[in-house]
Amino acid sequence: MEHTATLTRYITQFVDQLSYSGVEDVVISPGSRSTPLAMTFREHGTIKHWMNLDERSAAFFALGIAKDKQKPVALVCTSGTAAANYYPAIVEAYYSRVPLLVFTADRPHELRDVGAPQSIEQSHMYGNYVKWFHDLALPEDRLLPYVRKQASRAVHESTSGHAGPVHLNIPLREPLVPDFSTPGCWRGEIPPVPVMINGSATLNDEQIRLFKERLLSGQKGLIVCGPQSNGQLPYYIAQLASKAGLPILADPLSQLRAGEHDKRNVIESYDALLRSEAFKDHHIPDYIIRFGAMPISKAYLKWIQKHSQDVEHFVVDEYASHREPSGVPTTFVFSHPAEFCEQIGKEIGEDGKETEWLSEWKSLNVEAKKIMLASPEPALNEGHAVVYLSEAIPEESNLFVGNSMPVREVDNFFAASPKKINIMANRGANGIDGVVSTALGAAAHGKNTTLLLGDLSFFHDLNGLLIAKQKKINITIVVINNDGGGIFSYLPQASNSEHFEELFGTPIGVDFEKVVSMYEGSHRRAINWESYKEALRLSYKEEGLSVVEVMTDRDSHVAFHQSRWSEVADLIEGWKC
C-alpha cells in the first residue's frame, strides 16, 4: 500500500503542476505502463483528455490542437514501440516550432536492457528533435517538490525561445493503479511552482535609426512573409508596408492573405510573376525584409539566388536562429517581429505611401490574378478547386492544407480575402504523414475546419479518421484525387516513362466512399464544377465528418498550370515599364 500511496502522490503532483502551468489538453494512447498517468489525467478534471488508439495519429492530433490553440499539449503513451510512433510528429513539431509535451511511460531501471518485454531504450530516443529531455526519478515522497519543478520546466522549455517539443521519460514500478483517496494528492501541502515568464527581444535606438534610414532612402525594397502562425503579425506588417510604400510578397501560410487587416500592398500572385524571366530581370529589389520561414514558392527561391549579390537580405526572427535555406548572404535580426514593425513604423511617416515601384507590383499582381483565376474549362482542375473553396469556406475558419501539390495550389489560387481564415499546414518537415490527424486536432475544440489534401496524403493517415467518428468532430475534407502523386509530374523523372508510374506516379485505386462510410462520415464525389460547389455547400451544413472528393486528371495537370503561367509571362512581355 505504501508504494501505491507514493506513486499516487507523485503523479498527482506532476499532473496538477501541468494544469497550474497552463496545460489544457492531453492526448492519451492506451497501455499498461502508462496507467498512473492516464488515470490521473482523467481524474484531474481541468485538463481535457482525448483517447487516440494509434500513437502516430495521436501525436499528430496533439500537434493540431497545439497549432490551433497556440499552447502546449501533452502526449501520454506506454513503453516500447508506442513511443517510437510519436517520432514523425515530434520532428514536425520541432521544425514548425509547435510546443508538445511528450510523456513516455517506461520500465524501471532494473528492467532496462535485460530483455524485459515491451522495453526499449527510451532515453534520448528523439535525439536532437526535442528541446529538452529528462529521465524522471522513480516516485518517492521526498521528491514531490522535484516532480512539480520538472513539470513546470517542461512547459517552460516547450514555450521559451522558439517553441517546440520536450520529452520526459517516466519510469514506473508495479503495481500501477493509483488510489486517489490517498492523503496529500493534488495541490495542498506541496505548493505549485510559479509560472515562468518569457521576455522578448527589441531593437535599440541605433538599430531603429539604421532601418529608418534604409526605408526612407528611396531604394526599392520588399517585405516578404513566409509561413508563420502569429495572427496579430499581419496587422503590423501591413502597417509598416503602407508607411514605407513597400510591396508584401505574402505566402499563403503567412496569415496575410485573409482577414480584416490592410491588404492594399499584398502581392498574392508573386509566384506566377516570378516564373517570367523578363519580370525577374527587371524587378530586382535593393533589399528584402523577411518575416516567417522561407516561402513555399520555388520561383521566389530561384529568383533571390539568381540575384544574391544584388540584394541585401534581412530575416527578422524573435530568437536566435539561422532559418535561411537559400544560401544567400543574410543579416539576421533577432527581434519580436510585431515590435520590430511597430518600432520602425513609428519613425517613418503616415499610412498610404505610394511609389512607382509599389504601383507596378500592385498593377501586375491584379492582372496576373485575373489570368490565374479566370473561369476554368469544364474539366475539374486542382487550381479552381481552391478558388471555389475560398469562396465557400465559412468565416472564422481553419483551412488546413496538405503538402506536395495542395499547398502550392493554395499559393497560386487563394486570393486575398476579407474573411478571417487561418491557413495552416505541416511545413516543418513538409511530410504527407499525419495530415488528417493534425487537421482533426485543429478542429477538436469546435472551430470550423476544412482540410484540403491529395489522395495519397488521405490514404496515408486513414487511421486518423477514427477520432472524428468517436468524438463527432466537425470537419470538411476536400480530397483532390488524381490517383497518385501529382507533384512528381513537375520533376525531371516524369520524362522517364519506363519507371515513372510505378515509382513516382503510384496510383492506389482506393474507393474512398467505402472508407468514409466505415468511419460514419458523409461522402460526395464531384464530377463537375456545379456538383463540387453543391458538395461544399452541403458539407458546411452538416455535422461530423464530411468528405468531398474531387476527381481530376493527373496527365493534364501540368499543362493547365503551364498555360496559365505562360499567359502571365506574355502579359509581362507586353507591359510598359
TrEMBL record:
Instruction: Tell me the ranges covered by the Menaquinone biosynthesis protein MenD middle domain, including all copies.
Output: 218-401
Q: Name one GO biological process term.
A: menaquinone biosynthetic process
Q: What is this protein called?
A: 2-succinyl-5-enolpyruvyl-6-hydroxy-3-cyclohexene-1-carboxylate synthase
User: Which keywords does UniProt give here?
Assistant: Magnesium, Manganese, Menaquinone biosynthesis, Metal-binding, Thiamine pyrophosphate, Transferase
Q: What is its EC number?
A: 2.2.1.9
Q: Name one Pfam family in it.
A: TPP_enzyme_N
Its top-level enzyme class, in one word, is transferase
Q: How does it assemble?
A: Homodimer.
**Domain Thiamine pyrophosphate enzyme N-terminal TPP-binding, residue spans:** 12-125
Q: Which GO terms describe its molecular function?
A: 2-succinyl-5-enolpyruvyl-6-hydroxy-3-cyclohexene-1-carboxylic-acid synthase activity; magnesium ion binding; manganese ion binding; thiamine pyrophosphate binding
List the pathway annotation.
Quinol/quinone metabolism; menaquinone biosynthesis; Quinol/quinone metabolism; 1,4-dihydroxy-2-naphthoate biosynthesis; 1,4-dihydroxy-2-naphthoate from chorismate: step 2/7
- Give the organism, scientific name: Halobacillus andaensis
Could you tell me which residue ranges the Thiamine pyrophosphate enzyme TPP-binding domain spans?
Answer: 435-550
Give the reaction(s) catalysed.
isochorismate + 2-oxoglutarate + H(+) = 5-enolpyruvoyl-6-hydroxy-2-succinyl-cyclohex-3-ene-1-carboxylate + CO2
